[in-house]
Amino acid sequence: MDGGGAEGELTAQETALYDRQIRVWGVDAQKRLSKAHVLVCGMNGTTIEFCKNIVLAGVGSLSLIDDHMVTEDDLNANFLIPPDGSIYGGRSRAEVCCESLKDFNPMVRVSVEKGDPSLIDGEFLEKFDIVVVSGASLKTKLFINENCRKRSKRIAFYAIDCKDSCGEIFVDLQKHSYVQKKPGGETAQQELTYPSLQEAISVRWNNLPKKTAKLYFAMRVLENYELSEGRSPGETTLSDTAAVLSRRKDMCDKMSLSESQIPTALMERLLAAGKKEHPPVCAILGGILGQEVIKSISCKGDPIKNFFYFDAADGKGVMEDIPPPPPTAN
Amino acid sequence: MAAAASSEEAVKAAKVLMVGAGGIGCELLKTLALSGFSDIHIIDLDTIEVSNLNRQFLFRQSHVGQSKAKVARDAVLKFRPNINITPYHANVKDSKFNVEFFKQFNVVLNGLDNLDARRHVNRLCLAAEVPLVESGTTGFLGQVTVHVKGKTECYECQPKPVPKSYPVCTITSTPSKFVHCIVWAKDLLFAKLFGDRNQDNDLNVRSNDDSGSKTDVFERNVDEDLPQYAQRIYDHVFGYNIETALANEETWKNRKKPYPIYIRDALPEDAVQRNGSSRDHKNEEHEPSATVSLGLRNPQEIWSLADNSRVFLEALKLFFEKREKEIGNLIFDKDDQLAVEFVTAAANIRASSFGIPPHSLFEAKGVAGNIVHAVATTNAIIAGLIVIEAIKVLKGDYQNYRMTYCLEHPSRKMLLMPVEPFEPNKSCYVCSETPLVLEVNTKTTKLREVIDKVIKSKLGMNLPLVMVGATLVFEDGEGLEPDEAANYALNLEKVLAELPAPVVNDTKITVEDFQQELKCSINIKHRDEFDEEKEPDGMVLAGWSGPVDKQVNSNGDKRSVPSSSSADDIDSTAEDIPVKPGMKRKLNEILESQENFDALQNQSDVGSSSAQVVEDDDDDIVMLDEDPKQGKKKRLQ
Q1: Half-sphere exposure (CA, 13 Å, Cβ side) for B400?
Q2: FRET partner for B631 with CA separation of 20 to 30 A, picked from A102, B171, B316, B540?
Q3: Of A280, A301, A314, the CB nearest to B387
């Protein structure tokens, strides 16, 4: 995107197809979109929603990574996989999804990249402007996030996960300057500096405002538990409740937070969810992420900084700005 | 409906009706199917267009022209082959979708694009006692609301804004914005040249000249060739009419004067000559297009005055050369390329007369066609929220019903903001039995006027029946005996006081629409005089909270020019976003960003309700409370 100017005109075909959305974000944004390259690691109901949205929006290219063979479990929230073993049998999630996504918009290049996300190196990432990771372990997310940050070119990093009725999006745009629309229509140039994922999960909890979303804390407990127990993401059940609650106590004690800030009922919901995704929540998360990526590429509009939470139980979609730990080490 | 124990059971057992298979509809059908719904009926009148494909993801280029409902069904069955989806390529207002039809469903989900159909579905849902989940989006904004008879307000409990209209004099004489020039070009000039000549038209309203009144200047003379005619029209509307208007010095005392534009100024002599014989061959295979003829290929480009003038002349010529048969019957359509070209050029030439910045064809088309912005992401989010709300409705979990707003800029950190629903408005004529009051001159007003201006247009009835006491004075619809029909036709032309059952002061009439199962009483108050400017209908309906037109006519001009085309090909209408009157005043205390609030509010009118944020320690619920003078609304619990 650097120097990715907006020269060149849209074709008549593009103008006709994208008419309604150009009226939302403008021609310049549409041209930038058509030059952006997006990588998605991990195909599930939530990332499929996101992929659909940005393919329709007309990004330049979309690459998918997910070598897992399609199983019946994948059909739950995924509308790109026909429920027919003779079609998906023996093929990877990325391959099957890629085929269906191509259909959505012939002007977007959709392709499959093979490999293990936990080994994605910096050079490979260089090809992309946007990287989205889902269903990955904390270790993998941190690894990819750090690699994105090491490149000379700016690569926007997003992590997104749906746990049944709850969802979390993490955003790291590093340094992001954009045009902010002010009330009354005038615009101003703004710049934001984001903490890395490592920083954003390292801040002491007692330094955060009391009203911080409970899901922020609950997701950290769950992540910490999965990591130390060697579980893959979502590989938990209600039988882990006692162990997870004791992990909650340890973490709360260490960070001086009252345990009541992480309700047991919420922890139980997340544990019971396992890998299950609730399709309406996938649609909401995938929609929000789609909008965020479009904002980031077009450099227009206030982006999320740096977490977003949705919980169908209260219906709220909330942003949290979690700062990095203070620079002076203690 | 019995409250089901678990979401899964409720969903599996549910029979749902979706109205609309457009932007929201495609997303909704997909999310319903994935969520386990297995008996879905879907109604949509429309066929697929190219400009749908950027967000209505169940459709492909090869489906253009086919029924949305049917194609959407086939697309979803590919990934959920074992569910039942019943499509109807039909208008939801069709009589086959009656109350009995609605009663078979556990919940109705709306993804509609117009106020008229929304009101109709609302009434059928009330009559059939089926819960309704209503929705709409515009750009990045959207909302989902829940309407359950007796528990929450109905869709019509709050006034709905009507399409914008502009005072006639602003359009004919004193435009100050580009949109005024568009309305002039589309509703006056285009209509005058290509539409029904006999219709009233205010195009010449300011030229009080006698010279032009003998012959219609817009009529083409027998011996006039097309280029001559086009240039004469040009000089008349952009030159002569402006000169005439300038003569009225009073108008320009506090305004910047326009300058007249004649073709000889706008185009060098040779261009005028050449224009008549442009490269016609390019127009052979395709729809006639002035921009194709003239090589102006970029719809984003802002044309010079000379280019606008060329497009104007060329488009006018092409209408007469290639589409002569349609002249006299044309109505502006945003999908008619030549019409959009003509209107863009005419609006831009007029704009330059008045010192208003010109706009590109693309922008002008948006303004002229009332095109509402639409993106896939908002529709996907809104569809997700609809399903979440529908599941609560199916479980009977009414304490947790929420109206949810999707915002562009966060308010109190929220991008998705849930709000508690309101209780029904006790004076709503649709969902309560409160009688309406109609002030009317019963000695001079014909029954037809009451039916057209009040019963059909304001109360939104399709096939009304009118009773005076026990006497049926009018009935609409099929299946009438010829003598009955003749009798009713006679009654239509009678004044109220002379009907077989006379309608005078204090008479109570009953109007009813069987299809909507909506019945309401109207108490008649006789009044002799009406203010022509303020009460142009010659009657006043009170106790009614329908569309409110609050256009201020600064010059006291009594009429206004409504923007003729209603918004279409969209997933909602902008004016449906505000939903709550008066969110303007109070919600802006909550919505930190003025812009959010402007966008949500842009057309809402009466400021009469207030919003409160209830903070119970860790759970924020935004509550909207109506103005005390309208009775305080309580939390729904």
Answers
A1: 16
A2: B540
A3: A280
